[in-house]
What we know:
By secondary structure, the chain is α/β, with parallel strands linked by helices. It has ten helices and 14 strands. The N and C termini lie far apart (about 40 Å).
Amino acid sequence: xxxxxxxxxxxxxxGIAAAFTAALIEASDxxxxxxxxxxxxxxxxxxxxxxxxxxxxxxxxxxxxxxxxLAEDGDIDVVYVATPHSAHRAxxxxxxxxxxxxxxxxxxTLNSREATELVExxxxxxxxxxxxxxxxxxxxxxxxxxxxxxxxxxxxxTVQADFGLAGPFRPSHRLRDPAxxxxxxxxxxxxxxxxxxxxxxxxxxxxxxxxLSAEGADLQTAALFSWDSGxxxxxxxxxxxxxxxxxxxxxxxxxxDIPDGFFHPERFVLHRDGRDPEEFVLDPADGPxxxxxxxxxxxxxxxxxxxxxxxxxxxxxxxxxMRTLDAVRERIGVRYPxxx
Length: 340
């Protein structure tokens, strides 16, 4: 890869691909896809028409009408895979086989089996691989984790988090289509689950309940996790009701509340016994709360350092989250057509 710039390829042309590409451009403080740190050099879609339209929108040099052409482009340092998660295994696998480094949107794959296959493939090739869990790269979330790890609230007792959208979504919508991994859990529930994992690791026991649609997608899911330490997590996700997207971490000596948008917070409040509440606010220098540039910066930092995975979003953690999501699906009775 180049020392001056990291050259990105974008695989898919939907909303999240556009948001990520825009974040790369905004972070570069320029009006094109070229910047001091990142350069978007190619984009691919299933159709050449879609790829060309995306390329024109963002000033990208090359547009491919198939994924394989992007994967084989040796001028690319890293590919961002932004397809629906039902296609993550195929798209990321194609890029890894071709020797590309890869950033894969969350949920990482449909299930832990596919996730394990990608991780093993990346390790066999010596390629960089990371889940695009932007929450883990967020400066305020990193500050919160450091406070918890350093004992600011004592031993963690409970974690609560929710993420729900009001909808309604048509049965044919991606969020309700089982063939595309539709349902609340993989699209939205991955955030509360990953938040609990960030603070407590993989749970020892998992209980869950859900309301399913006629087509078999989970419309809303509630889960209760427990750990051998005695800690509990109460988590909820929904595509039939807009929630506050709040989170709270309670310990033996205090509590941290994120009042809204816990996966990209603007602020959180630390409550400690015998002390006034302390508010932690996003530094304006870190950009708007909804920016994806922090995960892009972490990928580029790791690539320049010659690392094959990020310490902020480690692959073992991604695999653990996928195992947990599998366990929740088993308990609520959700299987995707691809799984037989």
